[in-house]
Amino acid sequence: MTDVVLDGVGKVYPGGVHAVRNVRLHIADGELFVLLGPSGCGKSTLLRMIAGLEEITSGDLLLGGRIANELSPRDRNVAMVFQNGALYPHRTVRGNLMFPLRVAGDDPAEAGERVVELARLLGLAGLIDRLPRTLSGGQRQRVAMGRALIREPALFLMDEPLSSLDAVLRTELRVEIASLVRSTGATTVYVTHDQVEAMTMADRIAVLRDGAVEDVGAPERLYRDPATVFVAAFLSSPPVNLLQATAWSVQDAGMVLELGPQRLTVPWQDPRAAALIGHHGRPVVVGVRPDVLTLAPPGGPGPALTGRVRAVEFHGDHWLAYAEAGIPTVDANAFGRPPEPVAARAAGSLPSGRLAARLRDLLGRGAAEPEPAPEHEGEHRRSDLMFSLPAGTRPQPGEQVELAVDLDRLLLFDADGRRIASNRR
Ligand SMILES: Nc1ncnc2c1ncn2[C@@H]1O[C@H](COP(=O)(O)OP(=O)(O)OP(=O)(O)O)[C@@H](O)[C@H]1O
């Protein structure tokens, strides 16, 4: 039985890259826990520190209640599967699955039975005497997983095991992996950058950004009530509308959210209005998922936004429409980030010398040309309001539409991108 505690864990690589910052997590025994975040946020580094493949710079790692910072990988009773789970090419599926048991000196007859049983569970029964090179990518990943699981590790670590597979196979395998690891009862830490994979598989998710945990919780909670603008945006597909507003307290109405030329009012009886009072006269960010907006008859009684349809996209079971609403929007990545240090910026820009000239040629940039300024820096864009519609209804481009807003599902963040008040559902 193994739970995992990360107590203020940090990692600085030689050369000074701060890959993981003060991570505090408790992963319960038997939990399927997902580390989710964009490329470079430190997911793999964290996983490798749990596995013992990377030294921990600061803080403590506890496995099953014991400090494990200095424990060698083999003493941790962990098994790990990578993106391309390596198999012994000259051994059959049976040989690959059998190998860890042979090394451990298990009884050959019992080991043989276990291999057959696991191959059956993994849908590999018919392939048991085949060599890896004769298998598909998905089948090979299944064998790699089986090989990691066969010794019943206390802790099972997976680093993007599905990322090299095509979309159909990924969908199929994520269901299988989730039920397989749950059936073994092993505590599992699963790394991915794919929010759908995380949401569908996890008991709980930690969203990482720049080496730090932004939010941690069950998938439904993270989706319904994200702690930051970044988490709201990262977990949204289609993307959440992030609207720039100013909050005003209006005596007989509630907290009015001024969205460019439009308004929404959070009435005083809504508990979130009280939390918004502290932001009177200040900028706030309003997150509106496309399905929070529904096409409504003009001039209806409820809260609504208006816009002119610019484009519509067919998505099979629904339409996604884009409307010009004149409301300023914000970029989720601009929030909660410390300003980039000068040294880091210099390291990220092109090198000098002949190689630089060659690179600039290849990239089409002139030698004296300055780095382009980040898009929309210091100002807010006016982009489209995205809303979804059932497949039967299709507004025409150019049409003026009224969009009823489900106020209960608005996401409210302060000027630093942090949740102002919890969402009611
Ligand atoms: N061996 C290393 N030496 C120096 N820096 C490293 C090393 N390994 C990773 N890094 C840096 O640490 C940061 C985190 O990397 P890590 O691989 O953990 O991120 P990740 O979230 O797993 O990314 P990806 O999804 O792209 O694999 C990155 O900035 C990366 O460049």
Query: What structural class do the secondary elements suggest?
Result: alpha+beta
The number of E-state strands comes to 22
- How many strands, what sense, and barrel or not for the largest sheet? 6 strands, mixed
Total number of domains: 2
> Measured on Cα atoms, how large is the radius of gyration?
26 Å
Any overview of this molecule?
By secondary structure, the protein is α+β, with helices and mostly antiparallel strands. It is 25% helix and 30% strand. It folds into two domains: 229 residues, Rossmann fold, CATH 3.40.50; 134 residues, Nucleic acid-binding proteins (OB fold (Dihydrolipoamide Acetyltransferase, E2P)), CATH 2.40.50.140. The strands form five sheets. A six-stranded mixed β-sheet has the order 6-7-8-3-9-10, sandwiched between helices. It has a five-stranded antiparallel β-sheet with strand order 13-12-11-14-22. A hairpin with a 2-residue loop joins strand 4 and strand 5. The longest helix has 18 residues. It is elongated, with a radius of gyration of 26 Å. Bound molecules: adenosine-5'-triphosphate. The site of adenosine-5'-triphosphate has 13 residues, from helix 1. Adenosine-5'-triphosphate (ATP) binds next to helix 1.
What is the topological layout?
Elements: E1 4-12, E2 18-27, E3 32-36, H1 43-51, E4 58-63, E5 66-67, E6 78-81, H2 93-103, H3 108-121, H4 137-149, E7 155-159, H5 167-184, E8 187-192, H6 195-201, E9 204-209, E10 212-217, H7 219-224, H8 229-234, E11 241-250, E12 254-259, E13 262-267, H9 271-277, E14 283-288, E15 293-296, E16 304-314, E17 318-324, E18 328-329, H10 342-348, H11 354-363, E19 381-382, E20 385-390, E21 400-405, E22 411-413
Parallel strand pairs: 3-8, 3-9, 6-7, 7-8
Antiparallel strand pairs: 1-2, 1-4, 4-5, 9-10, 11-12, 11-14, 12-13, 14-22, 15-21, 16-17, 16-21, 17-20, 18-19
The chain binds adenosine-5'-triphosphate.
